[in-house]
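Budget justification note: compute hours in this period were largely spent on complex prediction jobs such as the one shown. Inputs:
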Amino acid sequence: MNNKIVGFVYIVIIVVSLYGCAVQQTLGAQDILVTDQAAFEKAVDAAKPGDVVKLANGTWEDFEILFTGRGEKDNPIRLTAETKGKVFITGQSNLRLAGEYLEVSGLVFKDGFTPTQEVISFRQNKDTLANNSRVTEVVIDNYNNPERFETDFWVMMYGKNNRFDHNHLVGKRNKGVTMAVRMNTEASRENYHRIDHNYFGPRTILGSNGGETLRIGTSHHSRLNSFTTVENNYFDRCDGELEIISSKSGKNILRNNTFFESRGTLTMRHGNNTLVEGNVFFGNGVDHTGGVRVINGGQIVKNNYLEGLKGTRFGGALVVMNGVPNSPINRYDPVKDAVIENNSLIDSDNVQLGAGSDAERSAVPTNTTFSNNLITNEDGRDVFTVYDDMSGIAFSANVLGSMDPPDFAQGFGRQAVALSRADNGLLYPASDVNAGVSRDLSVTRKSDTGVDWYSKPDKTEPFGFGKTITVAPTEGELYLAMEKAEAGDTLLLQAGKHVARKFLRIDKPVTIKADGDVSLSFERTTLFEILDGGSLQIIGMNITGADSPDYAGNSVIRTSPYSMLQNYHLEIIDSDFSDFDVNHTFNVISTAKGTFADNILIRNSSFSDVTGSILKLDKEFDDFGIYNSEYLTIEGSKFENVQGSLVDYYRGGTDESTFGPHFKLTGSELINVGGGKRNKTKASLYLHGVQVTNIENNTFVDSKPFKINHTVGEPKTVIVDNLFTNTPAPVVEELNSGLQPTAVIKNNSGIN
Ligand code: CA
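Corresponding output:
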């Protein structure tokens, strides 16, 4: 063959090969890379089973993704990122999928919020749903409506046989459940969805109802079956409200999930025959960490591990509720035919049986077994509280460690149990004890969930994790330093007189600390304004109102007048506040509606000559069950000549979805507090709807009485070891419950 012929043959071979490829391409999958929204729509319209529509790397702003089509089993139509984790959906965006065998992966939603009710919805509209479809390896990161109490949802599952797996959902901060399975039409019932290997990252305390992480069904359709499986997920500090998971339908499986330091419980709120198995709860002693709450018929709770849970009442480690005879669909069906076996409850505070027993919830559990559970506490304290007749529960072969057997039933054996931690991270008795969880329980780890290309948040300190900036007492320097500071920084103020001529805007966590004798005064109507993302710590300062303008209604610290999504911390330590009397109603700390503190702490500080109140936490006055601060703690401090109250703390309404507010006052002194003529409450301390109150070892002199209103739930108020001098006794009222007063008021001097 001469060279020309050889060349010709080669060309023929190449052409034939290329043709072969092309044929294969039309028979099989096409990858279609799109770079704008119009191209995306075109590609989706034309997509065939097996096709992959890829969004080009970069930021897609204001993109309402509608992904429809009909893939085939094992040959879905896919929507994904050119590179997973490199495609950002921002602004006013969302995702709807509708059709058959669709799969979405690799996208990141951040820097914006949905313009509709949902970020990801498994339907186009009420009639057009997704079935046999999957969303996997998608991230939703702080994609929140800026209005804290505007409700929306991150993921709504409709249709049947859908899967939501290996996703990363972190930082839901506005109202509305993070994720829900809907059963509102026939086409979404008996759905067999699978929700697995997701990372449900931190959800901070909402301070209202509507902070659930996962809900399956609603009360309306709760006597129907969902058949949803929730397994191998990791719930990391999901603190939104008292329900982490609310199962409101029948025949769900909740299996092998891990709950890490999450406040609240897995609640079988409605529906029958749900299986709760192999879940692991690590409370690590965090307030209000709970376990499993059992309501309705045929529930099975077995082989679950619960350690270090501090929750009380309905939020205990294990709660079996009383029901309502012939219950309306939205109340409490009685517990019957439940099986509770082989669970380990270790160093957890509360097992509640017949919880909620009252005139309405009078139906006790029936035909229920409680067996082979291991219940042990390092301190040997009895963890059982029994509210009603428990003869409908057969207790057998339970092992109690060093605790005394409860007296309400047989079936609890006491056995010395030395625990050691096994490779799976769980505590097991060293000796052969035939109770508690199995040795081979496989624990879902954080790293088993979500995606590996998006980092999961660790725990951080609220303050002091940045650098130190020295601030001289020269004009304007404090303002500039504050503007320049980064999250976690400390401004170290040098000795002398500092004057703030502008508002100091706190939009990051920052510490202001005195180096020597530092005084700080201010010339505007407030000194510090805490904005979204801000937190403030004040250490060792002398703050005075001597240079404040002669207006009514000044404050030292206030929160943003606009809604804040991020909960803030405020700490005042070793500081003196004085001379806030240039005009009337000068408050030290004044909060606004739509703002929420995780924690306010005042320690070893003094406050004098204040024409307003020290703390105004009373701006959520709509009686929606919303409030301004989860914890308020005052220790070792002194308040003198305060015309308003120490605190006006208001949590209205009768909703029972929150653990807070909490109030603690210890080792402090109030002298002449509350007597100003503008103080509407006529109280030195006004607490309305506060859930946990502890007032201990204080002195009250020449002050108005406390007024404490119990409104809802089972508020715990303890007033002990205080000295009252020329100060009337506390007034505690039960406003809605009609119950006898429940406050513990004892060992106080100076009152009868
Ligand atoms: Ca709720």
